Structure formats: C-alpha cells, structure tokens
Amino acid sequence: MENTNAQQAQFVKMTQTPIPRLIAGLAVPTIISMLVTSIYNMADTFFVSQLGTSAAGAVGIVFSIMAIIQAVGFTLGMGAGATSSRLLGQQQNARANAVASTAFFTALAFGLLLTVFGLLFIDGLMRLLGATGTILPYARDYARYILLGAPVMACSFVLNNVLRAQGRATLAMVGIGLGGVLNIGLDPFFIYTLNLGISGAAIATLISQCVSFGILFSFYLRGKSIIKISARAIARDAGTYGLILKTGMPSFCRQGLASMSTVALNVNAAVYGDAAVAAMSVVGRIFMFILSAMIGFGQGFQPVVGYNYGAKEYGRVRQAFWFTFKVGMVLLGVMAVAGFFVAPQAMALFRRDDMEVIAIGAFAMQAQCLALPLQPLIVCCNMTFQSVGKSWQATFLAAARQGIFFLPLIVLLPQFMGLTGVQLTQPLADVLSFGVAAVLAVRFFKELKVLEGDVGASHGAHALQSR
C-alpha cells in the first residue's frame, strides 16, 4: 500500500507540477552529476598530460573504448529509462520493472564479453583505434584497467538512467557524483605519489566506477527506487528486448558513432603527429565538459516529457520543450563567447610547454564555439523523440552529428584542407545536424497539435455523455 501511494504521488508530481519548477528540480542534480563526470574526465586528461604529449594522446585513443562501453550502457539505460518512464506514466509498474531488469543484466553480459575479448587482443585493438608507435605503450597501460571495469561501467549507466527516468535525479547525482569526486582525488595519488604513471589514472577510474556502482545499486536494494531490479523479472520475450533496443537506438548511434568518429579523428590527426592527436583529445574533453551542462538539463527534461506524453498531457510536453530550449540557448551562448576568447589559455592548462598542441587545439576550440549555440535544438529534439517513442527520428538525428555528416567530412576535408580540415569537421557537422533538427521539430509540433485536438474532442464527448 505504501509503495502504491509513493507511485501515485510521483505520478501526480510529474504530471501536475509547474513545468519550470519541475524541470529545474530534476535538472539541477543531473547537471551536477554530468559536470562532475566531465570534470573527472578532464582531471584524467590534465594529470596524464603532465606525463607528456604521447600520454595525452593515449587518453584520446582509450576514450574510444569508453565510448563503446557508454554506447551499450546508454543504449540499454536510455532504452529502459525512456520506456519505463512512459510505462510509469501509464501506471504499468510491473512492466517497468521487467524492462529495467532486462536492460541491467544484458549490460552485465556485454561488459563481461568486452573485458575478455578486449584484454585478449589489446595491442591490436589499440592500433586499430589510432595509436601511433609512441602512443601505444601508454594506451595499452591505460586501457587494461578500463576494460576490467567494463561490466561495472555498463551496469552503472543503466542504473543511473532508470533512476532519472522515474524522477529520482538526486539519487542518480549522488551515485555518479561521489564516484567522480573520488576519481579526482585518487588521480594524483596513484599517478604521482605511488608513481604508477598512466596506469594510476586508469586504476583511479576503475575504483571510482566501482564505488559509483555500489552506491547506485544500493538505492534499488534499499527500496529508494520505484522500479525494482531482479533476475526473476528478466523478460523472456523477444519483444521486450526489441523495445529496449529500439528506444535506445538513438543513444547507440550517438555513443557508438562517437566512438567511430573518435577513431577516425585520431587516425586523421595522427598524420600530423602526436601533438595533433593530443590537441584534439584535449578539445574533445573540454567540449564534453561544456556540453554536459546542456545534456544534464536535457536529461532533467526527459522524464517530464516521457511521463506527460504517456499521460496524454501534450500541452505540458510542448511547454517543457520550449522552456528547455530557451534555457539551453542562454547557457550555451554564454559558454560559447567565453570559450572562444579563452581558448589558448584553456589549452595551455593541459600542455603549457608544447606550443604546437596549444595552437592546434585553440583553433579547433574556437571553431566549435561558433557552432555551440546550435546544440540546444539538437539536444532537445533528440531527447524528445527518444522519450515519446519516436525512435527512428531520434536515431537519425543522433546518427547525423557524429556519423552521417561527421564521418564523410573527416575523410574528405583533410584531403583538401590538411590539418584545418580535421579541426573544422565537428563544427560543420553540427551546422548540418541543426538543419535536420529544425525540420524534424516542425513536423513533431504539427503532430502534437493534432494529438491535442484529439484529446480535446474526446474530453468534449465525455462531457456530453455525462449530461
């Protein structure tokens, strides 16, 4: 009875609380957890960069492996999260439990497979991901521990996303945030105090990921989550797996293509030496930090859209979209201006004694800042389509930025523009993706208007029948 009351209270909160207050309440802890995650990623890059340019390049190489783990974790986590959010909005809680449990144990199985095969073929994998001869030893030492943590990392993404999907963003923040803070503290201790070098950074990441997983999983064990994770709830029908994968496919495209684009970027940058690989790696981490605020705000907005779309509160869906878009424009607009003017100084924080790294990275960073204000529409559209079950639109948009546009550009532009082509690929891909998002947004709001009309007509018919 107590659990039923909690579920009903959460439903009322998600479908009746004023939109600005609801999204802000869910987004603040999500933004904090995203920023902490980005900060510890930057801390890894910063501390490792002090070991040399080749070590800094190794972080960019191994990031491709982390992107693969994230691709699977986010695919299953976002697929389960968005689906369970709609199911909770429809008050189908047992079905939501089955979806979440299925995603969790699937992530565990994938993580174990990646660990085994990644460690068996680690040298060949590093070369495939773009490691040069001088970067390879560093990449191997770093990747070994990241691969060991693959099962924990993949499962943590599922637990985190399912918590957020049910409106428990603060709990998700605690789990991810504490692990991130621990990582920042352990980095210098393992790298310098214990003299473990780049392996120390990887060990710090592994330990922090295990701590985050333990905290997140404890919330499910202690009944802090509406949704329950249990091996007995694992679905035995192919339809549930298909629904999770279909809903999560945009995340797979976004994260999977992020891995492919990182590999392509590293391979093309390697033509111009370790300095180019290191510079683009640092720029990638900086923009991961900048975009984390927008993505965090968008993730606070996602469960609001899922709940209200499932409850047929279409006016609230529209209001949530435009509120998030406007806040995002202000947020990223300020960051774009600031980032453009401090680009050389930002790069110098990582490799102060390597002027080539600073010059290459500063130009790439300034170019990406020019395209940064386009991101709010891309993020809002992607997250909206995923939350309301428009998987193919979300998948296409996710694939556009780092696949459909990025991959051809990273192959073609360097042939005509050299290193400048490498630096301009991401901002040009963002401009083209913005155009796609604008077209899809117009279509979606036309459809939403029709749905609102249908609901209004239905309510009118019920009112006449009751007289």
Q: How would you portray this structure in words?
A:
With 467 residues, the chain is mainly alpha-helical. The chain has one domain. The protein contains 17 helices and no strands. The longest helix has 48 residues. The radius of gyration is 22 Å and the shape is globular.
Output the keywords.
467 residues, 87% helix, mainly alpha, 17 helices
Q: What's the alpha carbon Rg, rounded to whole Å?
A: 22 Å
Q: Report the principal-axis shape.
A: globular
Decide which structural class fits the backbone.
mainly alpha
Number of helices: 17
Biggest sheet, in brief?
Answer: none
* End-to-end CA span: 35 Å
> What oligomeric state do the depicted chains represent?
single chain
Unreliable residue stretches? 459-464
* Overall domain count: 1
Mean pLDDT: 85
**What percent of residues are in strands?**
under 5%
Number of E-state strands: 0
**Share of helix, binned:** over 70%
* Secondary-structure element string: HHHHHHHHHHHHHHHHH
